[in-house]
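tokens incoming
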């Protein structure tokens, strides 16, 4: 990374946008100039970057002049509207929404899994779904040794995956219930405090939700495995930050816990936390704010041939979003 870059963040005032700014700072990405973009109502706000205030500007089609990298985290419709304008202005877009993930012309990248895919970009690259990215951090190294065929998974997804309003909703509900009051509800169809909701995203005709199908569809693309199958139940839990996923995976070749552990211990961006006798396993509270995902509860699956079960946790604002986006920009900056 020999030069400084003009970086823009679209959706700068949201939970992921703010995290993108912090990750750029923390990883010393060579930012020569930072442009913060958001909706008209956020324009004029000031956010701190590297010890100096940066004023938020309104996101418009002509806001990308001179920008090298535009990191988008403002929702799919915004990405579809403004990403092409950013590319036209000469920027490379790393998009965190679902807008372009399955577009055959757009690389879908997890740098620890398929960094070479980034080379084939035509101006836009996509970040995968947060649960998919976190799961693949554990699944990919196992696949390289044992050859994954299919998996069954249940996710335990934090409210921050729904944005800042959901974080506030959980907090407000907990406080209201502690006072014996009726909890306020706006973001979710059910009370989330002291509850779990087996719905993330909208339902499809099959009975799965859109979120649940992302593991199979995005997993196929990222791993280059058109025959990969995944049956997933996505659940929203009353956790502020960091997603967890319980996975049972079936492999082509025989797998042992010792061999799996040896593979996982060498994997970048992953920590093995697996000492059940000492209550040693990943928990979202411990993973929150950390770049690395954590994997544990490694055991042979007693219902599958060549099966391994595991539990993986990752900060979905980081590996599931902002960190992954900045890592993609780093890949391109190195080139």
């Amino acid at each position: 990374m020999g030069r400084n870059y003009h970086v823009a963040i679209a959706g700068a005032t949201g939970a992921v946008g703010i995290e993108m700014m912090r990750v750029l700072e923390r990883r010393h990405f060579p930012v020569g100039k930072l442009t913060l973009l958001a909706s008209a109502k956020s324009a004029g706000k000031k956010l701190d970057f590297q010890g100096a205030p940066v004023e938020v500007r309104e996101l418009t089609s002509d806001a990308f002049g001179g920008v090298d990298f535009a990191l988008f985290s403002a929702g799919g419709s915004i990405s579809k509207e403004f990403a092409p304008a950013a590319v036209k202005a000469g920027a490379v877009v790393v998009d965190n929404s679902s807008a372009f993930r399955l577009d055959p012309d757009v690389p879908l990248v997890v740098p620890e899994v398929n960094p070479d895919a980034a080379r084939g970009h035509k101006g836009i690259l996509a970040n995968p779904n947060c649960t998919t990215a976190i799961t693949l951090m554990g699944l990919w190294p196992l696949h390289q040794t044992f050859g994954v065929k299919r998996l069954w998974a249940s996710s335990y997804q934090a409210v921050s995956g729904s944005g800042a309003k959901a974080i506030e909703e959980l907090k407000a509900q907990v406080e209201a219930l502690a006072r014996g009051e009726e909890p306020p509800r706006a973001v979710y169809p059910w009370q989330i405090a002291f509850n779990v909701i087996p719905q993330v995203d909208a339902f499809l005709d099959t009975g799965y939700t859109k979120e649940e199908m992302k593991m199979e569809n995005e997993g196929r693309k990222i791993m280059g495995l058109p025959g990969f199958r995944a049956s997933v139940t996505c659940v929203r839990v009353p956790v502020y930050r960091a997603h967890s996923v319980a996975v049972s995976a079936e492999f082509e070749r025989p797998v042992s816990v010792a061999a799996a552990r040896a593979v996982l211990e060498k994997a970048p961006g992953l920590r093995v936390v697996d000492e059940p006798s000492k209550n040693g396993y990943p928990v979202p509270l411990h993973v929150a704010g950390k770049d690395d995902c954590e994997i544990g509860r490694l055991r042979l699956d007693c219902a599958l041939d060549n099966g391994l079960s595991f539990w993986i946790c990752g900060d979905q604002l980081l590996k599931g979003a902002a960190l992954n986006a900045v890592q993609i920009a780093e890949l391109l900056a190195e080139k």
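note: The longest helix spans residues 130-146.
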